[in-house]
Design brief:
Layout: E1 7-8, E2 11-12, H1 15-31, E3 38-41, H2 48-59, E4 63-67, H3 72-81, E5 87-91, H4 98-110, E6 112-116, E7 124-131, E8 136-141, H5 149-152, E9 157-160, H6 166-179, H7 186-195, H8 200-213, H9 224-233, H10 243-255, E10 257-258, H11 260-267, H12 271-284, E11 288-291, E12 294-297, H13 299-305, H14 308-314, E13 319-321, E14 327-329
Parallel strand pairs: 3-8, 3-9, 4-5, 5-8
Antiparallel strand pairs: 1-2, 6-7, 10-12, 11-12, 13-14
Length: about 325
């Protein structure tokens, strides 16, 4: 039996990252210093925010939440709220404007910020400054390239989070289901983990909807067939691809090679949504490749578009249903 995925204040997986952060935490606590400023990167839904909150919980301090759309005055207000050792968690930090990023850089360097004028103005009052307590900045983003180099250079630790292997995803699904009082068989939990494509947030969405789909899910255990019925009703195939993703693949098969703009018109969504919410998943799965001449199906993507039989024959994570409550799962690469 595989060992359970490591837990760090309810954060599961990424053992190497967690081990490093725990050593840094222990050193900061021993020296009575704030935790180092950190940049957490990775795809949307892998748990960047949850990891930052786990760090603060271990450190025994608070998390003040900020967002990339906060303006300079709002950021200054939140910085002034920080007590000694507190964390300022800035989610979607790539959306910050240059002035806001410069304010954070100044706050790190000088442990103080300019006194802003009262009212709605974001102008400073002159030479007056507000001192800050020792604090920690945690930046979380899936687009670190949009940050100013001056701010990135002041991040002492860079934490890259990646998609979760199946073993960890199954542990995450079982934990989420328990928290929701949702009864799942081990095989059903594995199936939800497989179609979640390594993203805990996607697993949470599936489980929330599964709970509503079966009103008696708190009184009986759901099996593989129940999950299959839910996925079919939701338009999700056994590999976890939704209607838009399947349409993208089929349109691309017809075109051979196509630009993002062409595919957006054919699928019926804007290019930004298509690139971030549809195409990114297909590229990560190895079904689509992006070339200078446009998008093209990979050999695996070609197999997928040939039909369910060819798809299941070559996909390592497919599940064969034996009956309502039991399934035999082919070995899946973690």
């Amino acid at each position: 039996m595989p060992r359970p995925a490591p837990r760090f204040h309810d954060f599961i997986g990424h053992k190497a990252v967690v081990d490093l952060l725990c050593r840094q935490l222990a050193g900061a606590m021993t020296r009575q210093e704030p935790f180092p400023h950190s940049l957490i990167t990775g795809p949307s839904g892998v748990g960047k925010t949850k990891l930052a909150r786990a760090l603060a919980a271990e450190f025994g301090t608070r998390v003040v939440q900020a967002m990339g759309y906060d303006n300079r005055k709002e950021l200054a207000r939140k910085l002034c709220l920080l007590n000694k050792g507190d964390f300022l968690l800035l989610d979607e930090c790539h959306r910050l404007g240059p002035l806001e990023q410069e304010l954070l850089t100044e706050a790190i360097d000088q442990q103080s910020i300019p006194q802003l004028a009262p009212g709605d103005s974001q102008e400073t009052t002159g030479g007056d400054r507000v001192s800050l307590q020792p604090w920690t900045l945690i930046l979380a983003t899936d687009q670190p390239g949009h940050l100013l180099a001056s701010l990135c250079k002041r991040m002492d630790i860079e934490v890259p989070l990646h998609l979760y292997p199946l073993r960890d995803m199954k542990e995450i699904v079982e934990t989420l289901a328990t928290n929701m009082n949702l009864l799942l068989s081990p095989q059903a939990a594995r199936l939800v983990a497989e179609v979640s494509a390594g993203l805990p947030r996607q697993a949470k969405h599936y489980l929330r909807n599964l709970r509503l789909f079966f009103a008696d899910s708190e009184s009986r255990q759901l099996g593989v067939k129940d999950v299959h019925d839910f996925l079919e009703a939701s338009g999700v195939d056994s590999s976890g691809l939704g209607p838009l993703e399947r349409r993208y693949l089929n349109e691309l098969r017809q075109c051979g090679t196509a630009s993002l703009e062409t595919l957006a018109l054919l699928v019926g969504v804007d290019t930004v949504y298509l690139k971030r919410r549809v195409e990114a998943n297909l590229v990560r799965r190895g079904l689509v490749q992006i070339l200078p001449t446009g998008r093209r199906l990979t050999p695996l993507g070609q197999i997928w578009t040939q039909g369910p039989e060819a798809h299941h024959q070559d996909e390592p994570n497919s599940v064969e249903v034996v009956d309502d409550d039991e399934a035999q799962c082919r070995p899946a690469a973690d």
